[in-house]
């Protein structure tokens, strides 16, 4: 990844919204043997902006979007779709290569990326379905009965305890699914 520097502007860069005296982030990335791309920003660059690989940029963008979301079922499904799209682009690039080049390093890398993206997208879809299948427990209705009626009071306390246990299990499952989705998205192939 490209090295990001923090600089103080000596002049205005109006296309980037930077004025003389502002502190900004600067990066210069090689785009070819004799070419490079310079980027300036008042905000830190996201990892997806610091790569010239469209596959890596798409994967990192999906990870960033998921991290910035509430991380619920629809967010997991959106990440799966983005990863699947990135994998399909890699698969299309592989398929469009001459057969002799498909066996080379670049061809093998594209095929591995496509396979990994498909595997991760499938796992994310499965997690999204698990999320959708979770049933939030219902809080018991009614107010606490008078302690004079011991049976009713004990039944109410048991219902409250059961609800709290079910609630903790529900929240624990949500966290597990979020963690697994995060782990899958952090496992980007080279």
Could you explain the architecture of this structure?
The protein has five helices and three strands; from the N terminus they run E-E-E-H-H-H-H-H. The relative contact order is 0.10. The protein has helices at residues 54-67, 73-95, 99-102, 105-133, 150-185; strands at 4-8, 23-30, 36-41. The protein has a three-stranded antiparallel sheet with strand order 1-2-3, with no helix packed on it. It folds into two domains: 1-45, no CATH class; 53-190. It is mainly α. The two termini are 12 Å apart. Helix 2 (73-95) runs antiparallel to helix 4 and helix 4 runs antiparallel to helix 5. Helix content is 56%, strand content 10%.
Q: Please estimate the helix content.
A: 55-70%
Please give the oligomerization state of what you see. single chain
Beta content: 5-15%
Mean pLDDT: 92
Q: State the domain count.
A: 2
Order the strands across the largest sheet as they lie in space: 1-2-3
Q: Rg from C-alpha positions?
A: 25 Å
